[in-house]
Amino acid sequence: MAAASALRLAPGFAALASHGPWTAKSRPGRLSYRAFRTVTREGPWTPRAVEGEIPRDLCGTLYRNGPGQKETFDVPLGHLFDGDAYLTALRFAEGRLSGLSRFVMTPERKHELASGRMRYHEFGTRCPGRALGFKNPPNINVFPMADGHFALSEGAPPVLIDPDTLECLGARDFAGSWPARTTFTAHPKRDPATGDVFAYGMTMTLFPELVLGRLAAGESAFAIFARAPLGGVYPVHDFMITQSYVVVALPPVYISMWGLLRGRCLAESIVAEPHKPLRILVARKDGTKPPVTIESHPANMIFHHCNAVESEDGRTIRLISIETEAVAGFRALEGWGRATTLAHPKSQMTEFVIDVEAKTVARTALTEGAPIEFPAIDQRGLGRRMDAIYALRTFDAPDDPLAFDTITRWDGAGFRESRARRGQVFGEPVVVPDAAGGAWIAHLGYEADRDETFLDIRDPDDLRLVARAWFGFRMPLGFHGHYVPDVG
Length: 488
Ligand SMILES: [Fe+2]
Description:
Elements: E1 14-15, H1 31-34, E2 41-45, E3 49-52, E4 60-67, E5 71-72, E6 75-76, E7 85-93, E8 96-103, H2 107-115, E9 141-145, E10 148-152, E11 159-161, E12 168-171, E13 189-190, E14 197-202, E15 209-215, E16 223-229, E17 240-241, E18 245-250, E19 253-255, H3 257-261, E20 270-272, E21 278-284, E22 292-296, E23 301-310, E24 316-324, H4 326-335, E25 347-355, E26 360-365, E27 372-376, E28 389-393, E29 406-410, E30 415-419, E31 424-426, E32 430-433, E33 439-447, E34 452-458, E35 465-470, E36 481-485
Bound molecules: fe (ii) ion (FE2).
Protein name: Dioxygenase
GO molecular function: carotenoid dioxygenase activity; metal ion binding
Cofactor: Fe(2+)
């Protein structure tokens, strides 16, 4: 992977005036909502202040992605997933941090800005009046593959971006290799041993299929190595790889095409199948055998997996994932931006031991109580070693399950935690390797009193805070991203 070169800095901040009359301060809400409100700035920036010392061996760029607005002109966007993609590149060099942030200028965003009003349905908010269709902003993740950086939406093709300027270069289908009318995961996986990238999609056809593809290291086209009929469109959000397998968990909810045809947005078209089991599909990466499906109860939504490793003989897979009550989870996401009371959906970190030959699953709960989400590992151990797992938890925020106030580290035996101060909420941790062979934990955070975003650098073992950079403005905490170390 080529290193990102130095960010090209245009002069000064650009103040955003694209979403008036709704301003970021005009809509109060729960703490996590405030941490996701509309951005206030685009352009290059440097931190207002740095506490502690940013490690000098940290040389590279951390890319983050998430929805950048919570209103489109006069329409409030209430769902966590709503809003155009807003990218940030955080560049570390010689103990200093600089940033570049901007919206991904998709054709739909350009169209709405030119129109001066909402024209598309968002994930959870309908466009008032006649909609031109569904918007799938690439606001979930940003991932390097096929010699490019891609902003990812899950429901639409990957969008190529310039890693230096964050300019939107348009959707791509990898030289025509990704099947037409097929979604593309927002969580591709790179096998650390081979450099191959794995991805899944769902064909949006009358008889939907799960499609699994491999982008061999150094190649620009995917090879599709497995297809499996699904019987419906299931909102699979993540998957996992091991040395030999790809593992996909199908949730007990599906997306009603009938609902979408009737003009409902995606969030309104999710239908529960409460009596169905969790279906775990296991496919061989070499495509030599058809995928097998293994059923397990209870059926929960798995938004994110942590890691998976297979036994030496390849017979069993140890998979660790974050389970969340499906119906309550989607309800919380939908009601999150509104004043309604939010129940905490039950969630836990679970260890699944999958016997691929016997087609059985044993499960063990690793956490209980406080909500847990946004797991992270050192990607150098993905699918190969069960190293430490990091995640966020919410211990002290009734009515706000997404106000993550704790970062936690699980080492296979126990948990170590670091709590946020009251009024702060943490964003997804990322393990960032340094030039000395070590690694750090980096995550965004939001401080309500100052209405300001910050970046924490933490010790990977004891979670001790090593440095905190205050941005001087607020940007949404967002969802996911990746780190690209400098080379040479
Ligand atoms: Fe995700």
